[in-house]
Amino acid sequence: MNKHSRLLVSALIILFSLFRYPGAWAESLVADATERGDAGTVRELLRGGADVNEAQGDGMTALHWAAERGDQQLAEVLIYAGANVHAGTRIGDYTPLHMASRNGHADIVKTLLAARADPNATTTNSGVTPLHLASASRSPETVRALLDGGADVNATEGAWSQTPLIFAAAENRLENVRLLLDAGADVAVTTRAVDVVERELADQAANKRITALLADFKNKAGGDAGWLPQPNEVQGAIDLSREVQRNWPNVPDPACDEQGDSAGSRFSRAEGPNKCGQTPGDAGDSETADESPPDPLSYGQLVGDWGGLTALLHAVRQGHAETALALLDSGADINQVSAGDHTSPLLMAMVNGQFDLGLALLARGADPNLPSDAGTSPLFAVLERQWAPWAHYAHPVDHQEQDASYLQVLEALLDAGADPNVRLEKNLWYSEFTSSVLTPAGLHYDGATPFWRAAQALDVKAMRMLKAHGADPALATRKIAQRERTRRDPEGNKIEEVDHSGLPPVAIGEPFIYPLHAAAGAGYGQYFMAHAHRHVPDNWLPAVKFLIEECGADVNARDANGYSPLHHAASRGDNQLIEYLVQKGADVTLVSRKGETTADMANGPTQRVSPFPDTIALLVGLGAINNNHCVSC
Fold first, then answer.
1. What is 483-534 written as a DSSP string?
2. How many Å apart are CA 16 and CA 480, to the nearest integer?
3. Cis peptide bond upstream of 249, omega within 30
4. 184 neighbors 193 (Cβ within 8 angstroms)
5. In 3-state terms, what secondary structure has residue 194?
6. Within 387-459, where are the H helices?
7. Cβ atoms of residues 378 and 418 within 8 Å
């Protein structure tokens, strides 16, 4: 866009604003002077008869600006001159009392309340009251003034149903927390929980309706490939989308008439028939439906529910120890789980790396065996936080600033009776803070135990500690449903997959990747694992030795893909580990289900994974066959 075009767009925006808000044509001299803090001009304008309530284009009046700036003297002048204490901004309907409360201007809050400002006024965009905003401020005096003025201590805002206590706890305003508790704040209130499956379905339905509506506009206009909708048509599509999301699931789905299935029938968790008269998962033909494999979990199903946090959970998540302990002292339940995915305060601490606070909760009697809906236990969460995969953007790092090490926390949890064999029920949606690398490589967490996670991190100290407390070193992850990729020859004919391993098939839910395979390098020959895998440095051989020599792992064990530990070691070019495995009886001639030999795994088996010539030569010398199927060459 060139300079003249930008100027034209800016002019149009200004004209649109003036058309939509006629009051913006008028001068707002008193508000402008107050914004500048020019008290002399304000008095002169008022003596000359200027309107004290004339608002700026965004609805800010002079009293709003006095409250925002904390100008007590000017606020009193404006109120004496007839300023409207109930005036609201155009966006959000923020009153002067909201402004003063947000900024912790206690004297102005008292002045406004004395002028009959409503202490329970709510904004229209988020539904917050002045007490919500004051509770997040650094001014206990402001909180006290609002409470004395009749503010509802348990009011809930509109976006997440948070109370003032939750605002204060999340911001670590300890004195505000104590004032609110003394005034009767409810420590057990939870924020709104979001059903992500339903939200996912609502988004899908909204997208379908938008697409259908725009296609209808195009057909009526006789549009060609370069057709673009008019602004009013775009706005109509947006309005329709919002209507669908607001009214979900009570929205008629046009797809039912065409396909006999709704946008969400495959993934709906509701019991009974859906909008199209089908039950969840019904493919329409009962005979073929039972034979078809289950669908992979959608993002919504992986997340499940989120939100539903108490004030204690908010404080724990941020590591606000004093605030968390004050809430406990006032009767907060140390084991009250979230209304979303049922995360306990102890688990919340471990997931976010708040190890020191987690130990304090444990000392106060927190239950170490309360898993989330995904099956995440505090034990697993500690290891996941310590060895979280490399990411392309920021993720929690508070564990790096704790006095307690992750091993000390593991030991404390185990000594408190934490079960080391709790298994995850599904992959953790937050396990990767980047584009997915682990799941395509088969390193999903469904069925994983803390011991498995320690093995994948090559963490011998953690594995030994877990084993000493009863961890089963033979528990593998579980095979999950995955979308099948159809392979075709140059003529477009489907290539039927042939299993070359001679192994029996592995069904959904059966063992997938064992700890030994994870420690040998599972995933490196299947995807870009090296880009994300974090582990104890240079600990491949010690980890595998521990599993074989101290845990009795089978050196020729096969994972669900037919790979042996030797396959995985070869995919990383780890000659030292290969020689150790062969010494322990590893069979170099084993073939995977895809027909890959151990030498093939060292020969660039996937794109952008370079071959290891020395490893190929070593394995061929030991009897392996090199099929020369280098994909990355």
1. PPPPPB-TTSPBPPP---S-PPP--TTSB---HHHHHHTTTTTTS-GGGT--
2. 54
3. yes
4. no
5. strand
6. 406-415, 450-456
7. yes
Q: Provide the 3-class DSSP secondary structure of residue 252.
A: coil
Owner of token pair 């490589």 = 441
Name the average pLDDT for the chain: 88
Same domain, 120 and 214: no
Is residue 500 within 8 Å of residue 592, measured between CB atoms? yes
Contact 383, 355 (CB under 8 A): no
What average pLDDT does range 306-313 have in this prediction? 96
Packing angle between helix 613-621 and helix 575-583, nearest 10 degrees? 20
> Tokens for 192?
């709104």
- Give yes or no for a contact between 29 and 36, defined as CB atoms under 8 angstroms apart: no
Domain span at residue 256 reads 194-281+292-302
**Amino acid at the residue 515:** P
- Give the C-alpha separation, 395 to 304, whole Å: 21
CB 278 within 8 A of CB 284: yes
- The long-range contacts involving 584-587, CB below 8 angstroms and separated by at least 24 positions, are 584/548, 584/555, 585/555, 585/556, 586/555, 586/556, 587/556
**CB proximity list for 53: less than 8 A, separation 6 or greater:** 61, 62, 82, 83, 84, 87
Long-range contacts of 66-69 (CB under 8 A, 24+ apart): 66/34, 66/96, 66/108, 67/96, 67/97, 67/99, 67/100, 67/103, 67/105, 67/108, 67/112, 68/99, 68/100, 68/103, 69/34, 69/35, 69/37
Neighbours of 612 (CB within 10 A): 21
In a domain, 479, yes or no: no
Q: How confident is the model at residue 22 (pLDDT cuts 50, 70, 90)?
A: very low
CA angle 271, 273, 275 (to 5 degrees): 120
Burial 508-520 (b: 16+ CB within 10 A, else e): eeebbbbbbbbbb
- Model pLDDT for residues 259-277, shown as the tens digit of each residue: 433 333 333 344 334 444 4
Q: Supply the CATH number for residue 86's domain.
A: 1.25.40.20
Task: Tell me the pLDDT tens digit for each residue of 559-595.
Answer: 999 999 999 999 999 999 999 999 999 999 999 999 9
Domain assignment present for 225: yes
Burial class (CB in 10 A: 0-12, 13-18, 19+), 488: exposed
Please give the tally of structural domains in the chain.
Answer: 2
Q: Report pTM.
A: 0.85
- d(CA 36, CA 49) in angstroms, rounded, equals 20
The DSSP call for residue 307 is E
CA separation for the pair 315, 317 (Å, rounded): 6
DSSP helix/strand/coil, 85? coil
Residue 134 sits in the same domain as residue 205? no
Identify which of 406, 400, 405 has the alpha carbon closest to the alpha carbon of residue 382. 406
Asked if residue 213 and residue 111 are part of one domain, the reply reads no
Token reading at 301: 């199903």
CA-to-CA distance for 468 and 550, rounded, in angstroms? 11
